[in-house]
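ok new one. same drill as before - structure tokens go in, u give me an amino acid for every spot. 124 of them this time. try not to just spam alanines like last time pls lmao
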């Protein structure tokens, strides 16, 4: 809800002179709407920041909310000027695939390890 994806784009613009239209973004595997159940606090925070843009990514099943975090992060990137064709999404739910990923919501304290990489082309 704090817009970390948008803040990353802003930092790349400020610190490295990147143009948002030139940024390539990848949203890796994460817990998906199918498995990410939450109370109203998470959707309320998303709606407060993204307003109507958050609605397609939030559903209510009568007792809990299901939230599409990848979709919401894509919205943040789009709002920051990243082009839609420059955003890739893995569309793999970490909770649905415990044979491939670790998910705290599914596995609890049985810890695994995952990593992410950010790179600037032409820099070491």
């Amino acid at each position: 809800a704090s817009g970390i994806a948008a803040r990353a784009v802003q930092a790349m613009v400020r610190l490295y002179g990147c143009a948002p239209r030139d940024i390539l973004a990848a949203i890796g595997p994460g817990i998906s709407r199918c498995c990410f159940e939450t109370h109203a606090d998470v959707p309320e925070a998303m709606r407060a920041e993204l307003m109507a843009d958050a609605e397609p990514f939030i559903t209510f099943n009568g007792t809990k909310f299901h939230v599409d975090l990848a979709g919401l992060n894509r919205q943040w990137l789009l709002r920051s000027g990243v082009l839609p064709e420059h955003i890739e999404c893995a569309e793999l739910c970490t909770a649905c695939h415990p044979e491939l990923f670790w998910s705290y919501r599914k596995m609890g304290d049985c810890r695994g390890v995952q990593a992410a990489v950010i790179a600037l082309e032409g820099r070491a």
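The mean pLDDT is 89. and btw The CA atoms of residues 104 and 110 lie 8 Å apart.
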